[in-house]
Amino acid sequence: MTIPVLAWTILLAPLAAAAVVLLFGLHRRALSAGAAILGLLTSFACTVTLFLRSQHGGPLHLPLEASIEWIALPGLRIPFGILLDPLSILMTLVVTGVGSAIFIYSTGYMAEERAYSRFFGLLSLFAFSMLTIVLATNWVQLFIGWELVGFCSYLLIGHWYERPSAADAGKKAFMVNRVADFGFMLGILSLWAVSSPIAADRTFHFQTLASRLPEHVAAGVIPAHVLPWIGLLLFCGVAGKSAQFPLHVWLPDAMEGPTPVSALIHAATMVAAGVYLLARNFWLFEAMPSTLTVIMWVGVATAFLAACLAMAETDLKRILAYSTLSQLGYMVMALGLGGAAAGMYHLTTHAFFKALLFLGAGSVIHGTHEQDIRKLGGLAKTMPVTTATFLVGSLALAGVPGLAGFFSKDEILVLAKEHNAAVYILGTVVAGMTAFYTSRLFITAFLSKPHGHGSHAHESPLVMTGPLVCLALLAVAGGYLGIPHYLGEPHGAFHWDVALLSIGVVAAGGALAWLIYWKQAVSAQAIVAALALPSTFIQHRYYIDAFYSWYVTEVQQKVLAGLCDWFEQRIIIGLIVNGIARATALLGSLVRRLQTGLVQAYVLLFLVGVIWVLAAFVEPGW
Amino acid sequence: MAEAVSFYTFTGIMLMAACSVVANRKPIYSVLSLLVVMFCLAALFVMLGAYFIAALQVLLYAGAVLVLFLFVIMLLNLQPDDAHRAFTMRRTGIVTCLVFFFLIFRILSRHRFEPPLSALAPADSTVESVARLLFTQYVLPFELASFIILAAIVGAVTLSKQRAE
Amino acid sequence: MITLNHYLSVSALLFSIGLMGVLTRRNVLMVLLGIELMFNAANLSFVAYSRAWGDAGGQVVVFFVIIVAAAEVTVGLAIAVQLMRQFRTLQTDEIKLLKW
Question: Which of A10, A148, A286, A324 is deepest in the core (most CB within 10 A)?
Fold first, then answer.
């Protein structure tokens, strides 16, 4: 198979699978699941092949582009194609690999589901959209994939659409993303506008922009104060898709969707798309130090605030959701600090262990039908495989040395220490909080005495535990795969001081959780009561959701929507539509007066015509 | 001289009678005024030397057509109407007709026909000459005229039939 | 001293008077009388021209006009009788089927 064929197969196989499912397979469960899994596995196989061929001495020289001309107008050229370089290959491996594991897991998790086929069709469509983003060669293609993943996310979150909470969550996700994408679109168009002073020469193409823009900025063609604004606008899109503060509100609610969806979309791939975008266009952001500072602080804030919220949650999936938010904050922070490779490294390891954790949670939910951790417990005996893999994932998340999360998180902390002390301190504190809530979760849900359904749970079938084990292996081995080196970062010295401090806080967090929840030596309620004001603030999620609700109902609906409604009712309907109707009726009633029914009136009109003819032609000048 | 006197006399009577046709509220009076118009017109025809046509005018028009009118008016027993019921669009009608008349008058006065008609040789207008034209040059319209009359008769009879209830 | 113009002016005047009768009278039969006046005006015009050009053709035309006028009056009056039967009135503004 030639290289371009392999490349296109990666992108198109999931699309073909989606088409098969949605056209032929809506009532054929086996066909749908088979087509979806086969599609994504094909993509994975092709990606692995291309990866191998691109190694030293192989026939594939990166970066490689294979594209078709989608729009070719004078002054507007938009190709659609595939860009292969280490970054995209890494991301594609993550998406297709972790995705395949999740697809296989879903056959077990969704086995009693009525809309089984629709689920797999949409999953395949999502895979295609995500790969469009990852393999995009230009901003427009990326934006298309961006919107498509948002759409698939909406459909998948609202998979059980008969439930009002699920339908609302889907809408919320889509709308928050829409707000963010408005800024994103402005950023893309501004970037296009400054890409060349000559109108016909403007482009959306990543590589062209990368090669052209630095010279333009240096030469002064692009005013230097414009670039930071473009960067901020583009970051708007990132903030929406990767759920940064204050656009993070949709991610916790997105847990209404089935757990495989949470694992795939809201942990491993879609939310990471923003980070991927920053990494892909890092050359652009590198040129704007002020924007990078903003990005960094937004990431830190998200990491910290989300970790606080995770510590107070009691729903199994929501804890993991806030944890995802926190880790995304880490990734964005890494990019703000200038470490594109570090950010992508953490993205990869996070994909492994967060998907593992979500799938494990799904296994628990599948076995016990319970999501509140206070009502679980005692799962270690009844669901051993799940417990073991979940433990591996938790350790990786917390940053226990030796597992993947430790290495990637430390890379970020090293960067923070070099650039900004405050950020470093906050990052370390968040690592401690991460360890705390992860331990709390594990102890309460798995180790403690059974409080409810934990005792009569049963282990999940092999299709579900198999992927769990695979992901657990990756969570362990991920740190040793040499990912930063693959992305081009040179080997640095191992920073023992950072490592020791992070191990220390992790141990402290774990110990605190053990004290409170296992030994019950310290009471959680006492701590909450002691920190009354912050606790209330956290319990109401910083009142952000409340603020948004107030804004939408009071300001937007009453003022803006009211204005638009007035305009529509009075001007468009009243003046234009009804006006035209009334004018026509008026004209009609006037013309109707000609039809008097009186013969002599018609004769008079005839006579007037004759007079006019005579006056005009026979005797002109009268 | 004599010619001018007779012309103006007959014209004057004719026009007054015409006004009576149009303005009179009683239908019988209108028809009888029209009769006067016909006779004056016949006199004018005689002055113009068209004897045959003058005779036809009196015979056909005055004798047949107006009699038919009188019959119908008496059949329908038309009563004289009040003024507001007799006329419609009076002012509009008068104005438009005046405009029309002045327009035609201007068109006609463009050309001055100098010789008085009495000075011209009378056309060959005995019965014989008119008949000669009728039966040679205009024989087709002559035959078709009989068709028109036939159509009129059939139409009138059909239209006047009472429904056989 | 009576030239062609005199006769033509008389014809025009007679025509206008007939026209006014057509336009103004409400009774259908009066309208027909106005039409008769207009016919006669035309006849006068034809005969005057016939004398002016010395062509008897004008009189032949008048012959035909009289015949056609007679036929038309016949049918017209028959229609008027039927109108009277249908609408019980001969007023032109009442003989109509329009609603307004």
Answer: A324
Same domain flag for B54 and B92: yes
ipTM score of complex: 0.91
Q: What are the distances in angstroms from CA A183 to CA A188, A189, A297, A545? A: 9, 10, 19, 21
Co-location of B110 and B124 in the same domain = no
Tens-place pLDDT, residues A167-180: 999 999 998 999 89
Whether residues B126 and B57 fall in one domain: no
Size of interface B-C (CB pairs under 8 A): 240
User: C83 to chain A, minimum CA–CA distance in Å?
Assistant: 14
Residues B158 and B92 in one domain: no
Q: Is residue C99 part of a domain?
A: no
Is residue B112 located within the same domain as residue B126?
no
Same domain for B92 and B154, yes or no, is no
CATH number of the domain that residue C9 is part of: 1.10.287.3510
Give the range of the structural domain holding residue B92, as residue numbers without chain letter. 2-118
C94 touching B (Cβ < 8 Å) = no
Which residue's structure tokens are 């470490």? A339
Please provide the DSSP assignment of chain B as one string.
-HHHHHHHHHHHHHHHHHHHHHH-SSHHHHHHHHHHHHHHHHHHHHHTT-HHHHHHIIIIIIIIIHHHHHHHHHHHTPPPPPHHHHBSSHHHHHHHHHHHHHHHHHHHHTS---S-GGGSPPPS-SHHHHHHHHHHTTHHHHHHHHHHHHHHHHHHHHHHPPP--
Are residues B113 and B49 located together in one domain of the fold? yes
Give me the number of domains chain C comprises. 1
* Contact at CB, A597 and C22, closer than 8 angstroms: no
Which residues of C fall within a CB distance of 8 Å from B57?
43, 66
Residues of C contacting chain A (CB within 8 angstroms): 19, 22-24, 31, 92-93, 96-98, 100
Q: Is residue C67 part of a domain?
A: yes
- In tens, the pLDDT along A339-360 reads 888 889 999 999 999 999 999 9
Would you say the pTM of this structure is higher than 0.80?
no
Q: Kindly state whether A591 is in contact with chain B, defined as any CB-CB distance less than 8 angstroms.
A: no
Query: Do the domain assignments include residue C87?
Result: yes
Q: Give dist(CA C33, CA A290) in Å, integer.
A: 102
Q: What is the pLDDT of residues A477-518, one digit of tens each?
A: 887 877 777 777 766 667 778 888 888 888 888 888 888 887
Q: What is the pLDDT of residue B123?
A: 60
Residues of A in contact with B104 (CB under 8 A): 614
A298-330 pLDDT per residue, tens: 999 999 999 988 888 888 899 999 999 999 999
> What contacts A522, CB < 8 A, 6 or more positions away?
A512, A515, A516
User: Do B165 and B85 share a domain, yes or no?
Assistant: no
How near does any CA of chain B get to the CA of A566, in Å?
A: 50
Backbone angles phi, psi at A420, to 5 degrees: -150, 120
Would you state the pLDDT for residue B124? Answer: 61
Check B117 against C14: CB less than 8 A apart. no
Name the domain count of chain B: 2
Give the model's confidence band at A288: pLDDT under 50 very low, under 70 low, under 90 confident, else very high.
Answer: confident
And the tokens for A601? 């009136």
Is residue C100 domain-resident? no
Contacts with B31 from chain C: Cβ below 8 Å: 33
Are C62 and B78 in contact (CB < 8 Å)? Answer: no
- Give the helix/strand (H/E) hosting A89: helix A86-109
Given an 8 Å threshold on Cβ–Cβ distance, is A614 in contact with B89? Answer: no
pLDDT above 60 (res B125): no
Dihedral pair phi/psi, residue B55, rounded to 5°: -65, -45
Higher pLDDT, A55 or C46: C46
CB contact under 8 A, B89 and A619: no
Q: Which domain holds residue C41?
A: 4-94
Whether C23 sits inside 8 A of A595 (CB atoms) is no
Model confidence at A220: pLDDT above 80: no
Indicate which of C24, C55, C86 best probes the interface with B, i.e. most B CBs within 10 Å of its own CB.
C24
